[in-house]
Specification:
The chain has nine helices and 14 strands. The protein is α+β, with helices and mostly antiparallel strands. The protein folds into two domains: about 180 residues, 2-Layer Sandwich (Ribosomal Protein S5, domain 2); about 150 residues, Alpha-Beta Plaits (2-Layer Sandwich). Strands 1-6-9-7-8 form a five-stranded mixed β-sheet, with helices on one face. The structure holds (3R)-3-hydroxy-3-methyl-5-(phosphonooxy)pentanoic acid (PMV).
């Protein structure tokens, strides 16, 4: 049996300007542009191996060792697009094996809890698309591939790039201009760090697709957010990233997280993603920034209670030390305790 295979990894990306709302559910076209930071390959990531063979009799996916369905419209849309592009490659060179006609076996593994508000579907679809694109030796660039990943999960389009990434919403009905582009590589701002506080690794309450639908249909505040607030922030945040202006970047990030959770609360019935621990983290970060007299840390929360804290490496001990003082009884802190035990306490 001849098996062709290729592997790829895609890290999680954490939005600093949130995507929330679809104007086309099937194509995953957003109601606003968004910006994110893709974590490094060493942090949270999905590793995917895609194989195909004339001897496989159906498409299959194993996620973290468990057989999962590939039947969803989203997965099917990604596979159909990738096979279509492979057909074009095969049409140009008759000698190539007809991989587009073979069934695929996909093995994927996350090194973090799935569906806990940690953007697992983003890394998952990005790794799937990039592994199959590699297997098929597709000539398309990352922005082109991002349009395919977008059909799997909107935010997945941003995980195809490292570093600071914008998802331009586009305005075409067919979504051809709704794609991810690089704002700056991670090397542009290597001292930017993200700490992820896993407040809970339970599966999230309201999945993002139904949550977005509820918000778009019922929140009055939402219209203000997508027409007035986000377009301005989109430009300001790109500028702050290019200028490595942490204070501005941090302010915009926190405000946008709050704005996103505000439209969730303004949905009817309301959607709650933050819990009491999340709110304590918010207060703590504001207290820290006040005490410092400048903004040295920013929080952001996706569709779940887990916090992501952005800070500059230079302030690592201050930021992690503070969090340690408050949450040291929580599992997972042992490895930091050595570094932070000598830090100032905030009362
Ligand atoms: O791509 P989805 O459908 O998982 O939605 C992601 C939504 C947020 O994580 C809350 C925001 C974002 O831009 O990633």
């Amino acid at each position: 049996m001849t098996i062709f295979s290729a592997s790829s990894t895609a890290p999680v990306n954490i939005a600093t300007l949130k995507y929330w709302g679809k104007r086309d559910k099937l194509l995953n076209l957003p109601t606003n542009s968004s910006i994110s930071v893709t974590l490094s390959q060493n942090d949270l990531r999905t590793l995917t191996t895609a194989s195909c063979s004339a001897d496989f009799d159906s498409d299959k996916l194993w996620l973290n060792g468990k057989l999962e369905s590939l039947e969803s419209v989203r997965s099917q849309a990604c596979l159909a697009d990738l096979r279509g592009l492979r057909e074009k490659v095969e049409a140009k060179d008759e000698s190539l094996p007809k991989l587009s006609q073979y069934k695929l076996h996909i093995v994927s593994e996350n090194n973090f809890p799935t569906a806990a508000g940690l953007a697992s579907s983003a890394a998952g679809f990005a790794a799937l698309v990039s592994a199959i694109a590699k297997l098929y030796k597709l000539p398309e660039d990352m922005s082109e591939l991002s349009k395919i990943a977008r059909k799997g999960s909107g935010s997945a389009c941003r995980s195809l790039f490292g570093g600071f990434v914008a998802w331009e919403m586009g305005d075409l009905e067919n979504g051809e201009d709704s794609k991810a582009v690089e704002v700056a590589p991670l090397s542009h701002w290597p001292t930017m760090k993200a700490a992820i506080l896993v407040v809970s690794d339970d599966k999230k309450d309201t999945p993002s697709t139904s949550g977005m639908q509820q918000t778009v249909a019922t929140s009055d505040l939402f219209q203000h957010r997508i027409t007035e607030v986000v377009p301005k922030r989109f430009e300001e945040m790109k500028k702050a990233i290019l200028a490595k202006d942490f204070e501005k970047f941090a302010e915009l990030t926190m405000k946008d997280s709050n704005s996103f959770h505000a439209v969730c609360l303004d949905s009817y019935p309301p959607i709650f993603y933050l819990n009491d621990t999340s709110k304590q983290v918010i207060k703590l970060i504001h207290r820290l920034n006040e005490q410092e007299g400048k903004t040295i840390a920013a929080y952001t929360f996706d569709a779940g209670p887990n916090a992501v804290i952005y800070y500059d490496e230079i302030n690592e001990k201050k930021v992690l030390g503070l969090i340690y003082n408050y949450f040291s009884q929580v599992a997972g802190w042992e490895k930091y305790s050595k570094d932070v035990s000598t830090l100032d306490k905030i009362e």
